[in-house]
Amino acid sequence: MLKKHHYNVVIVGGGISGTALLYTLSKYTNIKDIALFEKYDDLSTLNSNAKSNSQTLHCGDIETNYTLEKAKITNKTASMLENYGLLYGYEDKYMFKIPKMALGVGDEEVKFIKDRFEEFKDEFPYMEYWDKEKLLKIEPALLKGRDEDENIAAMGTDKRWSAVNFGEISKTFVKNAKDENNNIEVHLSKEVQKIEKIGDKFELTVNGKHYYADYVVVNAGAHSLLLAHRMGHGLDYSCLPVGGSFYYSKIQSLKSKVYTIQNPKLPFAAIHGDPDIIKGNISRFGPTAIVLPKLERYHHAHFLDFIETLAPSKEVIEVFYDLMRDEDIREYAIKNFLYEVPGIRKKFFAKEIQKIVPSMSEDDIEFAEGIGGLRPQVIDKKTKKLFLGEAKIKTGEGIVFNMTPSPGATSCLGNAYSDAELIAKHLNITFDIRKFNKDLLDKDN
C-alpha cells in the first residue's frame, strides 16, 4: 500500500532546470504523479531570474572558451529551447533576436577571431565575419572614441534568438506541464531539508512533513551538492560559489550582445555588454566573478552550508594553490575583487567596459545593486581541477543531483532529456523520444 503524499517522481528546485524537467516528463512520458518542491514563494527567484543571469541563449557560436565539439553540443540544447519558444509563440515575448558577436580588439585577438570563424563557419553557417567597416554600421558605439589605428573585428549574427527571459520561460514550463497532466503538484514555500532512501523509495522531509517518491531529481543549484553530500553522494566534488555582479550604463550605448574573448584558463564568463531585456534595453555590462562564502547571492549567508559543500581538504587546497600561483588568474581574481569595492569599483570597471565602448567613462556607469547571481562552480577532487560546465551525479539508485553553472539555463531541456531517459529506464515507463525530437530538435531555427 502506497504512503500518503507518494509520487512517481519528485523534482527539487523550481528554477529553469527543474521546471524544464517537469514539462518534459508531463508532455513526453506516461508518468502520472509528479511533484515539484520550491523553497521560495515563486518560481525562478534565484539564478534563473532575469536579474541574475546574462539573459543569453548560449549557442557556442560566440563563446570563445568553447571547443568546436562543445559548441556543437551546446548548440543542440540551445536549439531545443528556441524551438520550444516557437512551438508556443514566445518569440518577441520571452525570447528576442538581438544581434550578438564575439569581439576581438588588437591584432592578436583579431587573428583569433578570423581563425575561429574559419573553424566554426561550417557548423554555424549563419555566422558572419564583421570587419571594422561592418561594425561601424552594426554597432557604432564600438568605434566611437576608439583609436583609428586600433584593429577590431568580430564574428556575429542577427539571425538567432539570442536573448531569453529564462525566469518567465520556467513559468511557462509549469503552465504547459499542467495542461498536459492534471496530476502535477507544484509546492511553493516548501524547502526539502532531508532526503533518505528507504528500501526502493525515497523519503523527503519538507518543512517537517514527509513525502515519498520512486525517483528524485535535485535541481537546486549549489544546494544540490549539499543534499548529495548529506546522502553520501558526490563526495569527490566540492562547490566553489562564484558571484557575478553587473553595471548599468547611464547612457544608451549598445544594441547588440557584445562578448569579449575569454581567458582559456578560466571557466567564468568574459565581460560582455548588451541591452537588458527587462530594463527597457538599458545597456548592462558584466558579469564580475568573485568567490563568496554563501550558497545564494542575496539571501542569508548559510556559511555552515557553504563550508559543508566546499568540503575543505588537501585536494581543495591544492586546487586553490594551483589557481593562485598562475599570474593571469591571480590578476583576474584581484581585479574582480576591486570591481565589488564601493568607492573605487566604478573607476576600475570602466576600464573593462572601454574595451567594448571606448567612449564610456566612469561617470557614465553605475553599479547595479541587487543584480547578479551566484554559480556553483564545481571542484573535482580526483583531477584537482575546476569542473568546466554542468556537473551531474548519477547514483544509479533512483536519485540524480544536478549542478548547473553556465550554460545551465540554455541546456535546461537537454538536461531534462538526459534525466528523463534515466527515469524512464529506472521506472520502466515510456519516454516518447520521437515526439520530443520532432517538437524540439527536428526544426530549422
Could you characterize the architecture of this molecule?
It is a single chain. With 445 residues, the chain is α+β, with helices and mostly antiparallel strands. It has one domain (6-440): FAD/NAD(P)-binding domain. The chain contains 12 helices and 22 strands. The chain has helices at residues 16-28, 68-88, 107-120, 132-138, 166-180, 222-230, 303-310, 314-324, 327-338, 345-353, 412-427, 433-440; strands at 6-12, 34-37, 95-96, 100-105, 128-130, 152-157, 163-164, 185-187, 192-198, 201-206, 209-218, 237-243, 247-249, 257-260, 272-275, 283-286, 290-291, 365-367, 374-380, 385-387, 391-394, 399-403. Helix 1 (16-28) packs parallel to helix 5, helix 2 (68-88) crosses helix 11 and helix 6 crosses helix 7. It starts with 5 loop residues before the first strand and ends in a 5-residue tail after the last helix.
